[in-house]
């Protein structure tokens, strides 16, 4: 049977989402993969992609480097070039996760056969406190109303999509686990005297890093000393004013306020005991899949979006959203019950991930959906 062909268009920020999917899908499809790299990106994406795909004969990769900001009118010309290249592959279907707002929706609709287009929507609901929240909501609504075939990445986002628009053909397939390779350090967490909590990811308002700082201050005031809080990730707002000024106990914190290179991520999780996500809102989280990959127990806020991934006291822990005191209580419980935590919750988390989030099962959903288009 002849393999079908897919023209796939991905922005550089979602390479780690699409890469494992494409690598496995290529067993059954020929894929032309265009990766759109935004202006002023300094990461060597080409090396990263090649290290995973190797010389996969069923995937041809093309990097398209933008030279202007996304809002620039010049990007309409770039979009035309990207779309023409996608069409020249003569694919059976198009998969687009590069929305390229604000012009992408219009250009894709004008130049591609909508019935053969699958769009990815990572944030059906825009998190409260996100950058340019109102503008993002408008662009997302335009994106999901313009196409029939839509992928979402969590059951909670699927529910929201069905409430917003009707008559859509929906693929719900979870994010694949983010894999940054194996750790190069050997750590025995059971014998580590210091208990380490980790926050990892871009630092933005809705992720409530301020709440984690407040909780750490509370623990310190209680006289608890055998713990560290590592905060790792880039911050586009004023870190010193919005966060650092609230730190009362600097010795407790390990601050890595910068973009974390891919090669450092595995080691960072290797010596961390608990991954903390104090978010007040989220669509779905890529960061939690990193914790799952490295089997680090998660402590999350009790917002609905986390409930399909973390069952409090079974596969992880949850605290009352927005309540620093409750977060501090759960952190203290972790420190005082580390043997129970590391043994039971870690095992339960791994069993959940193996059953629900295996790459094979995720890719099977893509294949089934594509076969019906």
Report on this structure.
The strands form two sheets. A seven-stranded parallel beta sheet has the order 3-2-1-4-5-6-7, sandwiched between helices. Strands 10-9-8-11-12-13 form a six-stranded parallel beta sheet, with helices on both faces. The protein folds into two domains: 4-176 and 357-371, Rossmann fold (3-Layer(aba) Sandwich); 195-355, Rossmann fold, CATH 3.40.50. The protein is built from 13 helices and 13 strands. The mean pLDDT is 92. Strand 2, helix 2 and strand 3 (59-65) form a beta-alpha-beta unit. The protein is globular and about 65 Å long. With 373 residues, it is of the alpha/beta class. It has helices spanning 15-25, 45-53, 74-88, 104-111, 133-145, 155-164, 209-221, 239-242, 262-270, 287-293, 324-336, 338-356, 359-371, and strands at residues 4-11, 29-37, 59-65, 93-96, 117-120, 149-152, 169-172, 195-200, 227-232, 253-256, 274-277, 297-301, 317-319. Helix 1 crosses helix 13, helix 3 (74-88) packs parallel to helix 4 and helix 7 (209-221) packs across helix 11 (324-336). Helix content is 39%, strand content 18%. InterPro entries: Glyco_trans_1. GO terms for molecular function: glycosyltransferase activity. Residues 186-340 form the Glycosyl transferase family domain. Keywords: Transferase. This is Glycosyltransferase.
Topology:
Elements: E1 4-11, H1 15-25, E2 29-37, H2 45-53, E3 59-65, H3 74-88, E4 93-96, H4 104-111, E5 117-120, H5 133-145, E6 149-152, H6 155-164, E7 169-172, E8 195-200, H7 209-221, E9 227-232, H8 239-242, E10 253-256, H9 262-270, E11 274-277, H10 287-293, E12 297-301, E13 317-319, H11 324-336, H12 338-356, H13 359-371
Parallel strand pairs: 1-2, 1-4, 2-3, 4-5, 5-6, 6-7, 8-9, 8-11, 9-10, 11-12, 12-13
Helix pairs in contact: 1-2, 1-13, 3-4, 7-11
